[in-house]
Amino acid sequence: MIRLGAIADDLTGATDLAITLTAAGFRSAVVVGHEAVTTELGEQADAVVVALKSRTSPVDQAVSASLAALDALQRIGAERFYFKYCSTFDSTPEGNIGPVTEALLDALDEDATVVCPSFPANGRTVYQGHLFVGSQPLDESPMRHHPLTPMTDSNLVRLMAAQTRATVGLVPLQEVHRGSSALREVLMSRARDGVRHLVVDAVTDDDLRTVAEAAGHLKLLTGGSGLAQGLDGPRARAQEPITVRDRRRVVLSGSASSMTQTQVRHGLEEGDGVQLDPSALRADLAGCVGGIVARALAGPATPFVVYATAAPSDVRNLDDAPLIEEALGAIAHDLVDRGVDSLVVAGGETSGAVVSALDITDLRLGPTLSPGVAWARAARRSGDDVMVVLKSGNFGGADLFTTAWDGVA
What we know:
Elements: E1 4-8, H1 11-23, E2 28-32, H2 39-44, E3 47-51, H3 59-75, E4 81-84, H4 97-108, E5 113-116, E6 124-127, E7 130-133, E8 136-137, H5 156-163, E9 167-171, H6 173-176, H7 180-192, E10 195-200, H8 205-214, E11 220-223, E12 250-253, H9 258-270, E13 272-275, H10 278-283, H11 285-298, E14 304-307, H12 321-337, E15 342-346, H13 348-358, E16 360-370, E17 373-380, E18 385-391, H14 400-403
Parallel strand pairs: 1-3, 1-4, 2-3, 4-11, 5-10, 5-11, 9-10, 12-14, 12-15, 13-14, 15-18
Antiparallel strand pairs: 2-16, 6-7, 7-8, 16-17, 17-18
Helix pairs in contact: 3-4, 7-8, 11-12, 12-13
């Protein structure tokens, strides 16, 4: 019976949250779009995460898609909800985190919620309302140069206030350290005073567990996936068994994040690969796809990395992004049709393109590789399964593209 309905603003964020919920004792499922939410799914899962592609879409479209997801989750019985966004608060001054949160609160007739992107396991912490990436304030980290959502301020109160008309306030770390009961009184008091968006400090996993317990009265939680570790699922984790039959190790990477670029370079050192050339794709997309698939299938078992960027200098024209996504989706489709049963995919937009190309309906989480990264059994509309890792650009260790198959192949 469904206990929690979640809405994620991109696909890798959805899998990231489902990983944490599974570890917290929820039978978790990820579906792509609100149309895939079914009554049967609600009966099978304790938590259903709807993956959207709304992080960088126009505000009205992001709000509309999120409300449609909320309605679908309510129809299958969900009574508590979670809006999951990136732990680096990826957004623009217009949205979409603020407008979507506001719309969800209005639809649920709720007064307030917490804003808590902290994810200490991956180096994201919030102190005095400022978001840190490792030891760097957000606006001094590589996220300052993100091509789609450059983060030029680390102050979450200011960032959130720019995106919403409602009052935004800070709940500092000393209030969190007073314990969950005292913190709940603070949250309730601030809400009575008209503060609708409560930015809560958290620098450790224990802080997040305190926040989650204190926020137990709230119908809506918002944040990164870290906050979900403080939720109590109804059963012990039952890990989905994942077995990779084919020994071919193919990575599809469209992310321009600094960590993914490091992973690409490491993968190329250990194996082989090819960089996508937008001009060649424009001239002959089908021919390029066919050639890359042939090379991937002809190679040895070492990783074969198909990538867009391996260094900051590779990021040139953002207008090429849809073409690169289309190419990576087509490559994934042809590889799976020719017998490849496992793929590692890097980047939220790339993951969305691959899931669309493979016509995947839902994902069941399996072995965790690192915080926020796991294998998943992806069900295709055709009835076949494919094993995938859908990785947020910033997540995973430097050797992920070479070690992801260890223990499952």
